[in-house]
Write the structure tokens for this entry.
Amino acid sequence: MQPTCRHRPDCDGCPRFEQTPEKRAAELLAGLHRLAGLFELKPPSSIIHSEIDLGYRNRARMVVRNGRYPLGFFRAKSREFIGIQACVVHTDAVEEVLGTVRLLGKHEVMQAAKFVDVRAGENAILTVSLKGEVTDEAIQDFKAQFLSMQPDIGLQLNRGKGHGVLAGQQEVISGPETVRFVVRGLSFEVPPNAFFQLNTSMLETMQDRMAQWIEDEDIIDTYCGVGVHGLGLGKGHVYGMDNVEDAVKWARANAAANKREATFEVVEDATAESWTPPFADATVILNPTRAGVVEGFLDRVATSECKQILYVSCNPISFFRDAERLARHGWQIAETHAYEMMPRTDQVELVVRFARGKRLAVGPKAAEHASIWIALADGVVPHGELPGGVVKVRRIRNYEGASVIRITSVEPIDADTLAKSLRAWKHPLVGDSQFGSRQVNSKWLREAYVDVPMLACIRDGRTTFKAPGFFCATVQLPARTLERD
């Protein structure tokens, strides 16, 4: 018998709520196979189910509004508020804290709040993000009332002015400043503003698989957060980095508490240009945000002398993009596993092992003969010739405010020259930071994770090259359509 949710279908946070596990797995796997097919890369063979598909979410981030239901969510891709009386995918510990918050919904502090954040493991912390000024007396009264009902829960305030739930610094009002989680026998302290997996049980299942791939080598733990992967899997020395200072602080504390040899460093941003760990013979763990790994840093990893690369991804699109880039350096997918990290949603977590193999051939940046290129350019590009008369353009299709085009040059030409000509034609390349439009690039980076110019040579004289998988996936066209004369 399928469970019910009183807020469906108004709340769309669990779009697959009514589906059986078998139907969810079949549809999610079919989507991964379609995407992998566009890249011509190895897809997973199955979806590994979560043993717990209700009451699994160890964190709640909720919007605060005045009304019958003081807490809720925004509807997907909108600012429409959906009031939530109780959420069946939250753990009981999270819902217990939220129940107390709902009882205090008319309090002056809650009237000045924009978001609440609850994270619960071995203990729990409530963070109230404020949108307005609140007196110290009101804060102390809220603290007294809250702790009279939840005496063991940590309480923090966030006065950040941004739109993020935890934008700005945390202010500890009472209780511990971190939440403790136990993963495969190790204890991790996690501050409210650091990343940690929402489904602790599935995190352990993932790590059980990853542990089979690691022996006694050193671990390079990139985007390490509080160190859960590096410390949880490493038998040698762990070298980790993150650009969240608070996360690195607690990664160091977690290493000491778990008696692990580790060196964690704060980097300036995701490029980590100043970070120089000893890659030789180490296992590299890549665990980036949804945007994937910055191309320059990925190139550093790919050209290092590391033993293997383990990639953990919550976004199949940016993952397959990065997998294609690794293939250009001779890294091939050895094993792929997909996990239902957030049951009843569209979210899939990929855990992939890369080993050294055959290098993927790619088209040149400068063609030495008559050539054919494919590109994604802004706007509706007409059929015609670029200035000079040696380059012809044919539009294949319109797509999301841009045009997929085929470019034919009767003379040698390079990518920069084409990019400049398209810019002069008022149809700049999507993703081109040098000659393109900043506004256009920002949109495509945000919506499709395009971080490089969408231009590729598919024929130089008599030599042909495959259309890049990321290009095919972005424009939703198979390679054979793009390569067809």
Summary: The first helix runs from residue 21 to 39.
